[in-house]
């Protein structure tokens, strides 16, 4: 299995302990990652078509993901209302987090511009550090094969 550690300075990057979804649910990441493999998808912006395609690609494989005991979080810059709209339009059944002030993106080193994040997908370890990350995506390359390898889940794709 691929093992990657991302470090800023002397400390490993850690995802926040708790996040609040656009539906108002407070999510305890420690508790979630104790029982599931947590995969975080970041969107460049609420209007990013490639990012929406990534969510559709994952959604088509949700049955396989369930057998692999995974849960997803989607982090998207923008207002709560903008991100709620993306969640509704995508039909993606996992929590969406509005990174309105880019605090999460900054903590992980994914701020692209003042109102954009690098579109990425990463897997968290139970201690909320990043086990694996694929930064960037485009219409021709989503990183699906690398994600499958990093997850060691052969039911997917």
Q: Can you describe this structure?
A:
With 157 residues, the chain is an alpha+beta fold. It has six helices and eleven strands.
Strand line-up of the largest beta sheet: 7-6-5-10-11
What's the Cα radius of gyration?
A: 14 Å
Outline, from the CA principal axes? globular
Q: In terms of structural class, how would the helical and strand content be classed?
A: alpha+beta
Number of strands: 11
* Low-confidence residue ranges: 1-9
Number of helices: 6
Classify the helix fraction into a percent range: 25-40%
| Overall pLDDT level | 88
State which percent range the strand residues make up: 25-35%
Main pleated sheet: 5 strands, mixed
Brief overview, please?
This protein has 157 residues and is of the alpha+beta class.
Keywords:
five-stranded mixed sheet; two-stranded antiparallel ribbon; globular; alpha+beta; 157 residues; disordered N terminus
Q: Topology of this structure?
A:
Elements: E1 7-8, E2 11-12, E3 18-20, E4 26-28, H1 29-35, E5 37-42, H2 49-60, H3 62-67, E6 70-76, H4 80-90, E7 96-98, H5 103-108, E8 111-113, E9 116-117, E10 120-124, E11 130-135, H6 144-151
